[in-house]
Amino acid sequence: MSLRVLFLTHRLPYAPNRGDRLRAYHLLRTLAAEGAQTDVISLVHDEEEAAQVGAMESFTASVQVARVPRINNLARGLIQLPTRRPLTHALLDSPEVAPAIARVMAKTPPDVVLAFCSGMVRFAMEPPLLHIPCVLDMVDADSAKWASLAASSRFPKRLIYAREARCLSRFEVEAMRHARATLIVNERERQMLQALDATARIHVMENGVDLGTFQPQAPPASSQTVVFCGVMNYTPNEEGALWIAREVWPLVKRQQPSASLMLVGASPTASVRALAMMDSSITVTGTVPDVRPFLWSAAVAAAPLQTARGVQNKVLEALAAGIPVVATPQVAEGLPAGTHVAVSVAGDPRAFAGSLLQLLEMPPETRRGLAFAANLRELSWQERLKNLMPLLEEVSRARVTVH
User: Fold this and answer.
1) Which among 150, 89, 83, 113 has a CA at the least distance from the CA of 7?
2) Which CATH class name applies to 4-208+381-396?
3) CA distance 352 to 268
4) Is residue 291 within 8 Å of 216, Cβ to Cβ?
5) pLDDT tens, position by position, 267-300
6) Domain ranges in the chain?
7) What is the pLDDT of residues 39-59, one digit of tens each?
8) Matching fold, domains 4-208+381-396 and 211-379
9) CA–CA dist 261, 263 (Å, integer)
10) Nearest-CA neighbor of 322 among 301, 344, 336?
């Protein structure tokens, strides 16, 4: 009899065009390949996202969506600031989640709940899911991300981010104690969470990359283009785009006037859009149907994040596409060891610009050879997630003890 899994997620795992969707998508594809029957309950944030449900039919048993009332959630979040409730829980909420869970329980109760991220596991910690064995995929240490943002932000954001770090860290301990196992993407994140609770059962299950999808189909480009891919209203990505454009790029242009910078990704903020008006060598694309042509036509990829948690998929995808990467130390710390040969690490603007220039001066074939020197064969999603199904099967044989 096949394993029945209830998958709770804060964002519909399709299309797999951003980090959180990408991991969730491959978790679901892995479960389908192993014969599991997976019911998905996902928050959705707009009608465009909700319209993608049909694309998931081939690798799920069922998909239910719960629409997020953004304005109402913002108001509730403000009201709850004096409490200990994480803002994450106020903002990632929907009155449609509970009825969706009730429908799953009435039709075919799950053997195990797989809760994706700390924002969704709280539903597994309440009836009617309370006694169903649970695996929490934390992905990365959310509380540590908010602490980092607090350290680099100004008032009043600094106070709000610091509060979120405190509230989430307390909840993360509760969630890990409820879960039969907690997944995390790398050893750095595991150590951070283990410091919160030394007894937590934490397993490292790293992100992978779809090597076949990103494999270049043509000789390396002879362009002088630097590309940075990411959702551009996500605060760390926005900060990274502003930093490279304002602090690094003038230094590159001074030495290499023909160079161009492509900021590729959905939902650029007004500050990011303004970068293209500041310098004609900077392009802000907004949403694109496929990032691969931008990677294949670039000379170098940049990962300029000042705040980075987990594994940055954008680095793995760039290497698989045949271009080397310049990354900040914050990004490099989370990368698999086998990628380091193809990633130049630089923390300040002058060093970052120098690394970009060094790569731009290389022949295209040399750059591709450098990228392919990374040990990517062990980074396939199939390899990275090979222990997922055995873990879920083991957990499903247990029952949660409520004290």
Assistant:
1) 113
2) alpha beta
3) 23
4) no
5) 999 999 999 999 999 999 999 999 999 999 999 9
6) 4-208+381-396, 211-379
7) 999 999 999 999 999 999 999
8) yes
9) 7
10) 301
